[in-house]
Design a protein that fits this description.
The complex is a heterotrimer of chains A (269), B (306) and C (250).
Chain A lengths: L1 H28 L2 H29 L1 E3 L5 E3 H32 L2 H6 L5 H29 L5 H26 L7 H15 L11 H9 L1 H13 L5 H29 L2
Antiparallel strand pairs in A: 1-2
Helix pairs in contact in A: 1-5, 2-3, 2-5, 3-5, 3-6, 3-9, 5-6, 5-10, 6-9, 6-10, 9-10
Chain B lengths: L1 E12 L2 E12 L3 E5 L6 H8 L7 E6 L4 H9 L2 E4 L11 H11 L4 H14 L15 H12 L6 E5 L7 H16 L3 E6 L2 H7 L2 E6 L2 E6 L1 H8 L3 E6 L6 H5 L7 E4 L4 E5 L2 H10 L6 E6 L2 H9 L6
Parallel strand pairs in B: 3-7, 3-8, 5-6, 6-7
Antiparallel strand pairs in B: 1-2, 1-4, 8-9, 10-12, 10-13, 11-12
Helix pairs in contact in B: 3-4, 5-6, 8-11
Chain C lengths: L1 H39 L11 H31 L3 H7 L4 H29 L11 H22 L4 H16 L12 H9 L1 H14 L7 H27 L2
Helix pairs in contact in C: 1-2, 1-4, 2-4, 2-5, 2-8, 4-5, 5-8, 5-9, 8-9
Classes of the chains: A mainly alpha (269), B alpha/beta (306), C mainly alpha (250).
Chain lengths: 269, 306, 250
């Protein structure tokens, strides 16, 4: 029995090690300017939180949730900011940067001449994309706790949720990139991303939308992410959130599988 | 021992056949070449051997493994120098080697030591900390070759190793490859330069239109498909064709090219004397040894580089 | 001479205008719908006596002007020196540095104006314009565009790596669009931040635009606003000219 299982385990271990070498390559490329970009990226969701959550929040006042609870506008908006920043962080790394590496730098052609397989490259790039996003998420949650928008215990749970959101969108971003032909097409991705950002129950509860729009919104990935993180930070997790987790896991697995397959098709013709 | 074994190997892309059923055997320690013009199917063959392009049909065994199944294991023992340098532009020269070594799972310390060795081998030690972008074409090519050696491969695949390099850079690359050959590394290369094939290859196949049209050592190919010497005649005229008629009977064979006529002869000086006897006055006359270019011209009716 | 440079930019723009329509026009429209209409429903009683949507739309027009102007003078300028290197080609022609700079600036103003005009049209259809003065938002947009484009030209001509442009967006453009009175009144900002908002150009454009579309008097003297924005544009131009000279005249 053991002899049957063992070779598989070893080959899996090799895959993990090989994906890690892709991450290592990315770490080696880091330039001083990167740290500045990284530091400034951390500010972005926090600025949104202060502008919309606090500034506009003063105009809106308290919000009554569909289940009857009343919360401050900032506490309502903050988890949505976290979700959308996890999304945009994951997408920027896996669309624009990934596409450039694949199509213009021909980076993966060189890698594929080594024992690396397409799916291992995809996984390595995804893991790399997540590292930065996760640091942002953690920092944002610290700010939320400091502002009294959630508790430290709930923030730990929300961190896990944000990591999952990042992986799900990272998988989708990579899969999308393998279908792209030119830089211009990424404008469409950016617009779709912005539309999601505006209409995913981010600023107002989805119940405020007209019925048709509402059902469309409810099935979009960002809405499910907002729903999950908001439920965690406000401490109201139920069965629906289990569905959110499942949804995001499927999205991640699907995205990664499609990306690996398509990369194989594109690069190993 | 046979390192690469192909029988009836086929690569088809949508609506076009790049490699059309070739048989190849490469032995350990040999320098083996694919000679042919652009589009002959050389690069497609190389990509199949490099396990980054699944064969459409036929048998392919590399290091006694199946590339369809054992890709990673085979690639672990190959070194690949592609036609276009795909070096990592975001890394320095040395980092290109050390990072690449990590893809093979080589420990960091070993990778660093090997990188230094290889930089010395390709004469890039002084540029170790430079970025890749400002390097000359020859330097980039040498770095790509060094990168292909980082895993101490048993077979090194070189796709047109000197295309696009100036003569001086080419000779430096040839000299390094020759040293590798002496060390017993198996080299498989493609080229459309006959001088490169003559310099480097123990054995080669001539490819045209996805098929192998001849096989042997450079010397036997020349003996088999050409004469000892060639006379090149250029006439000052719209067309060389007119003069071809007046040259019948001179030498064994004659080829008319757009800008010159080639006479295949056993003795060049005799042939030149005969041309003068016939009162033809070419603008230039050149007597030279036969080359693989002539072999190719004879086999396909076309020149290698057009 | 400036005219030929502008012509060049207009001709190249013909090839890509479709994709830029999306980012410069559809995105602000979505913001208006998603944010203005959505959040507006929760802002009971409106702001300063008008519905929230009507109050924020003029701010969004000014903010669009700023984003289009900076977007079009950051990557294209860096690319003009580092990637496509169009400026070096132009400098080889009998053009002065000022011609090259002004021609490209004129194009940026053209882009700013067309984006804002389209937006103005849609916002009017939503019934958010209270006065004919609304037409004045266009020259205001052009002025805001110049005030932010010229220093951006200077910056983009001075850096060599595009990650510095990402930093400009994150530390400059995004904070400015979030805290310049577009989404909520500047008065609710704490002291120091409020003064930073006053010092930056966007708030001046927002205050002018809002006065125009609502048909009310601005918070500050309109002449003061215009002079202050002109000061940004003028100082920015001098910096940009110096940066361009440094790269083109060797």
């Amino acid at each position: 029995m053991l002899t049957l299982v063992l070779p598989r385990l070893i080959s899996f271990e090799g895959a993990g090690r090989r994906s890690a070498s892709v991450v290592e390559r990315n770490v080696t490329t880091l330039q001083p300017s990167y740290w500045l970009v990284m530091a400034s990226g951390f500010l972005e969701p926090i600025l949104y939180l202060f502008s919309i959550g606090v500034g506009v929040g003063a105009l809106v006042g308290d919000l009554t949730l569909p289940d009857g609870r009343v919360i401050g506008y900032a506490a309502f908006v903050a988890p949505a900011m976290l979700a959308s920043s996890a999304m945009s962080g994951a997408l920027s790394e896996t669309t624009f940067n990934f596409f450039g590496k694949m199509k213009f730098m021909k980076l993966y052609d060189g890698m594929l001449a080594t024992p690396l397989r397409p799916i291992e490259i995809a996984l390595g790039e995804l893991a790399w994309a997540m590292m930065r996003g996760n640091i942002y998420a953690a920092a944002f949650l610290v700010v939320m706790v400091a502002m009294g928008l959630t508790t430290p215990g709930l923030a730990v749970g929300a961190f896990g949720a944000a990591v999952l959101v990042g992986f799900a969108f990272g998988g989708v971003g990579m899969a999308l990139s393998t279908f792209m032909r030119s830089w211009q097409e990424f404008d469409l991705v950016a617009s779709a991303q912005f539309a999601l950002f505006l209409f995913s129950g981010t600023f107002v509860p989805a119940q405020a939308y007209p019925p048709v729009l509402r059902w469309v919104v409810e099935v979009t990935p960002l809405y499910r992410s907002v729903d999950l993180i908001r439920a965690v930070t406000t401490g109201e997790v139920g069965w629906l959130q289990a569905l959110d987790v499942l949804y995001l896991l499927v999205l991640f697995a699907l995205g990664l599988a499609v990306a690996g397959r398509r990369m194989g098709k594109l690069l190993c013709r | 021992m046979t390192l690469i074994h192909a029988r009836g190997l086929v690569k088809r892309f949508e609506g076009f056949t790049a490699v059309d059923g070739i048989d190849v055997d490469v032995q350990r320690g040999e320098a083996f070449g694919f000679l042919g013009p652009n589009g002959a199917g050389k690069s497609s063959t190389m990509r199949m051997i490099g396990c980054v392009s699944p064969p459409t049909d036929g048998v392919l065994r590399i290091l006694d493994m199946d590339p369809r199944r054992d890709g990673p294991a085979i690639r672990a023992r190959l070194g690949v120098c592609p036609q276009l340098d795909n070096l990592d532009l975001e890394l320095t020269v040395r980092e290109n080697l050390t990072t690449y070594a990590r893809f093979f799972g080589i420990p960091r310390k070993v990778a660093r030591a090997r990188a230094d060795e290889l930089l010395d081998f390709v004469q890039l030690t002084e540029r170790a900390d430079s970025k890749v972008e400002p390097l000359s074409g020859g330097m980039k090519r040498r770095l790509t070759i060094a990168r292909a050696l980082v895993n101490e491969p048993e077979i090194v695949l070189l796709d047109e190793p000197t295309t696009g390099l100036d003569p001086q850079a080419r000779h430096l690359v040839w000299e390094r490859l020759f040293r590798l050959k002496q060390q017993g590394v198996t080299l498989v290369l493609t080229t459309h330069y006959m001088d490169e094939a003559e310099q480097l290859c123990d054995r080669l196949v001539v490819m045209d239109g996805g098929r192998i049209v001849a096989e042997g050592s450079p010397r036997t190919l020349i003996e088999q498909y050409s004469t000892r010497e060639v006379v090149e005649l250029r006439f000052n005229a719209e067309s060389q064709e007119v003069f071809a008629g007046k040259l019948t009977g001179v030498g064994r064979r004659l080829e008319v090219l757009p800008d010159r006529i080639l006479l295949y002869v056993d003795d060049g000086d005799d042939a030149v004397a005969e041309v003068q006897r016939r009162a033809l006055s070419p603008a230039s006359v050149l007597v030279r040894r036969s080359s693989l270019e002539d072999v190719f011209l004879h086999l396909t009716g076309r020149t290698l580089v057009d | 001479m400036t005219r030929y440079v502008l012509e060049y930019h207009l001709v190249s723009y013909r090839r890509i205008w479709r994709s830029s329509v999306l980012s410069s026009f559809v995105l602000p429209l979505l913001t208006m719908l998603g944010f203005g209409v959505g959040v507006g429903a929760y802002v009971t009683g409106g702001v300063e006596g008008v519905p929230y949507l009507d109050w924020m739309v003029p701010g969004l027009i000014a903010s669009t002007a700023m984003q289009v102007a900076i977007g079009d003078s950051s990557w294209p300028v860096l690319g003009g020196f580092e990637w496509q290197r169009i400026y070096f080609g132009q400098a080889a022609a009998p053009l002065r540095v000022a011609d090259i700079l002004d021609g490209h600036l004129a194009f940026v103003v053209f882009r700013t104006l067309t984006s804002c005009a389209a937006f103005l049209l849609i916002a009017t259809a939503f019934g958010t314009m209270h006065s004919w003065w609304a037409l004045a938002t266009l020259p205001i947009a052009a002025l805001v565009g110049l005030a932010v484009a010229t220093p951006t030209f200077a910056y983009a001509a001075s850096v060599r790596v595009d990650s510095y442009l990402a930093v400009l967006f994150r530390l400059g453009v995004i904070p400015m669009s979030l805290f310049s009175g577009v989404f909520f009144p500047v008065e609710s900002l704490p002291g120091v931040l409020r003064w930073i908002a006053y010092a930056l150009p966007l708030w001046h454009g927002v205050d002018l635009s809002r006065a125009a579309t609502l048909g009310t008097a601005p918070d500050w003297s309109p002449v003061g606003h215009v002079l202050y924005l002109s000061l940004w544009a003028g100082a920015g131009w001098l910096l940009a000219h110096r940066a361009f000279r440094r790269r083109l005249v060797v």
